[in-house]
Amino acid sequence: MSRVCKMSKNVREVFRLDELKDDIRRNMVALLGNDPRSKRKFSYYNALAYSVRERLVDLWMRTQSDYYDSMAKRVYYLSMEFLPGRFLMNYLTNMGIVDECREIVAELGFSLEELEEEEWDAGLGNGGLGRLASCYLDSMVSQNIPGYGYGILYDYGIFYQSIVNGNQEERCDNWRRHGCPWEITRLDTLYEVKFYGRSETYYDSDGNVRFRWVDTENVMAMPCDILIPGYGCSHVSNMRLWTAQSSREFNLSDFNRGDYIGAMHGKVMSENITKVLYPNDQFLQGMELRLKQQYFLVSATFQDILRRYLKQHTSLAALPEAVAVQLNDTHPAIAIPELMRLLMDVYGMGWDVAWDICTRTFAYTNHTVLPEALETWPVDLLGRLLPRHMQIIYEINRRFLEGVAATFPGDTERLSRMSVIQEEGGQRVRMANLAIVGSHTVNGVAALHSNILQTGLFRDFHEYYPRKIRNVTNGVTPRRWLMQCNPALSRLITQSIGPEWCCNLEKLRELVPLAEDSAFRDAWARAKLENKRLLSRYVLRKVQMGINPNTLFDMQFKRMHEYKRQLLNVMHVISLFNRIKDNPSADITPRTVLFGGKAAPGYYQAKLIIRLINEVARVVNADADVAGRLRVAFLPNYCISQAEKVVPAADLSEQISTAGMEASGTGNMKFALNGALTIGTLDGANVEIMEEVGAENIFIFGLKAHEVAEKRRSGYNPREFYENDAELRRVMDMIGSGFFSPDERGLFSPVYDSLMHHGDYYMLMADYRPYMEAQAAVDALYLDQDQWVRKSILNAANMGKFSSDRSVMEYARGIWHVEPLGK
Ligand code: BZD
């Protein structure tokens, strides 16, 4: 912290702020070829971005030579997804120059906010898993842990969602169409990535059998770096994202044969690898191109890691002492056979030595227990694309099962459950099993989730490796998710308890006594109201709808998925609507219910729920009896920059997944950190949020994870709830009968049927009444603003645990075995 404060004192000097204005003008001309007298916001945003970035390059090079000189152990975070969102404000925040920059930009005739809006989000991920990776990069570099993100620079990130006649439509997210000032392309670094071909046996000079991978089709990987400044900028790291380039000789042979178009086709096909992010979260599509993307990331990354390592070491034997690799879910788990292949086939090691190095290098984070999200690849596909890896996987499995059989003699059922190869329904490679076997540590992302891994999904593995499966509860970076996104509240907090909270979130606890101070409560409420006003303006701009900042802002923003139960929220909205219609003069707490989230393009039911939300909104918002008390809106294209507007303005955060299904959730943390009260089930990190904020400051309802499991076992009958609850019955009948779709009566039948006829897998019917009761408690409390604001303060004050700084330190000490540099 002392370093941070020192930096902010002489920030003008360190970042040459006196020269910033001239630099912006210079970059307008020299880099962008624009007339500085032009008033184009986009040009000025770019000129500002380049001028900010160039101030970090020096610090970045210094950081890298620090790491090199100290021979520090490095952490590589391998992820198919990162969700950094926008960079400009994050750079300025972490450099501590937001206010200074605002003044300079004003002198040029702009507001910082309007230039900020010119930036497209880098949406290189689907949701929580990708955003977590970005929070962890921020926390690693802010705490001087030598960490790097490795991922893919998709040309098209997560699709742009628009809503047309109530339906989701997907448009391609050509986010770099007008360039991206943050990326530093390394045109001179290229690695060759191989695909297809075959594995060939030969004898080395000592007469040992060796393997080589031949007759391959090759694609080149080119890195592009994006700088990641730590808070206070004592260190700057980077994420390295790969793009696919066609290999030269591959083309040349075709060109030489005179087949120009054929050669161009090959070029285009190979460059397709990094074209587009797969938009499915929690669902495996099993496309060959996806597996290609995974191996492309892994192969390029390991060539880069080993090149860097070998600059300072002569032998690979000490790799695990110098390198820790964290696998962000199983998506990059092909890294395990890849490192084995490199160590054995390229560097000549024997199996046992190579395997020991491998298992001491890798750790794997699991983010889901949903069966449809667990990756498996058909053996014939994997064997065709990566023949040598398939051989290695078989050998890993053979040796592994030998060990299991020795520990559990005669237990063939167990062997088939634990095998890396699934036999039933055509042979497939189970990537989770491979990742567990090839890693020294496996972690879940919240206490409940890790417990479910140990006793449920990975139970056999937990019995076999009793210390391997552990927990590291997720966290979010307080820099972006409070300091940057919520200046009003940040200012108040800093005025009250000083600035240290943003690097030591536990400090927020000093706000606890202030919850009893009415002047502080008033200031807190004013900050929330200011944020609600800002959001109201945004909503008006986006969906042409006026919302009243003095109503309760009830928010559910996350990917659309049945297990997340946006439908349960809609059922509550319909119930409120009915109550108002039945009794138009009833005294009810005015609410604005806001939704946002993308559905995977092929996920029919999730898309239908988006439509339902929009149709319910249409009916509710047009009804004169309801006016002023209930409003509903779906905000299109939920993304990081939208989250930064939504999160600070929430009163109520909906975290209502079926217990046992949401691994952790991180939106729950962001909302509570910004003073929203949570209504939620005892699922994922909600359990720990309740422990921290106190059961009296959160609205918990519904079945617990073990009760969901028991009900599934003993037979769950959703109709029972329908028959015994008139209010629920009415809601279901309205959905089923076409009340919200008068022109297409059967439109929502699949929604009705999933609950009434197809078993209600996510148990909405069972949780409806408890949810209604919890919502009634919300309404009652909101009427007592003094109490509400008190609880809002206590929520934020007790969120210290959920800083990603804490999560990253747990990984560092417990899994990576690295310490912050300079300690
Ligand atoms: O990971 C999410 C979980 O659902 C959340 O509970 C958890 O908080 C976060 C971070 O740990 N999982 C995902 O976001 N998963 C994906 O996005 C994904 C993407 C591709 C394929 C499968 C899953």
Outline the structure in words.
The chain is of the alpha/beta class and 823 residues long. It has 2 domains: 71-86 and 121-474, Glycogen Phosphorylase B (Rossmann fold), CATH 3.40.50.2000; 478-802, Rossmann fold (3-Layer(aba) Sandwich). Helices cover 49% and strands 14% of the residues. The strands form 5 sheets. Strands 1, 2, 5, 6, 9, 10, 11, 12, 16 and 17 form a 10-stranded mixed sheet that branches. The chain is globular, with a radius of gyration of 27 Å. It starts with a helix and ends in a 7-residue tail after the last helix. The relative contact order is 0.10. The model is unreliable at 1-6 (pLDDT under 50). N-[(phenylcarbonyl)carbamoyl]-beta-D-glucopyranosylamine is lined by residues 126-129, 132, 281-282, 367-368, 373, 445, 474, 662-666, 684. It is an enzyme of class 2 (transferase). The modification N6-(pyridoxal phosphate)lysine is found at residue 670. It catalyses: [(1->4)-alpha-D-glucosyl](n) + phosphate = [(1->4)-alpha-D-glucosyl](n-1) + alpha-D-glucose 1-phosphate.
